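Please fill in the sequence for the structure shown.

STRUCTURE ENCODING:
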């Protein structure tokens, strides 16, 4: 886990999201968790690969986020892949509902972190990339890296 200056402790990130989607807008949401899940998150035992959020009956739920079971929690068996409710204001949920109904938009979690002791999820309003877009992005990244290396060499 990475601790930032502002008291934010990052648990996990979805690095693949930036490769697979155009991330347009970011939102911070709280997560409704059980006690053992919070302890497991504090140990950094979470995974966002293939996870997504969806608006359902006026509430936002996070699907496919894996939180490993806390080894010292006895008598409480929770499904590590269970849907978890995201805590957002009603106004934000209505805005997200309107945007996700537009063709091609989805809600993708990009980061899980602790802010002032509370578990938070950063979700992004995202549009899917085509295969050729992904290749173009990789090519641009590679060119930028080569330019930075050439710039560093010329400065020495």
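FILLED IN BY: designer on duty
SEQUENCE:
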């Amino acid at each position: 886990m990475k601790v930032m200056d502002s008291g934010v402790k990052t648990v996990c990130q979805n690095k693949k999201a930036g490769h697979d989607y155009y991330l347009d807008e970011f939102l911070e949401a709280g997560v409704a968790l059980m006690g053992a899940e919070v302890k497991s998150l504090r140990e950094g035992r979470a995974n966002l690969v293939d996870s997504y959020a969806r608006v359902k009956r006026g509430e936002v739920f996070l699907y496919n986020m894996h939180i490993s079971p806390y080894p010292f929690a006895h008598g409480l068996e929770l499904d590590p892949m269970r849907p978890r409710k995201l805590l957002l204001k009603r106004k934000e949920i209505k805005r997200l509902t309107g945007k996700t109904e537009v063709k091609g938009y989805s809600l993708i979690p990009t980061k899980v972190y602790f802010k002032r002791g509370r578990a938070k999820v950063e979700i992004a309003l995202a549009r899917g990339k085509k295969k050729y877009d992904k290749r173009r992005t990789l090519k641009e990244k590679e060119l930028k890296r080569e330019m930075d290396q050439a710039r560093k060499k010329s400065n020495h």
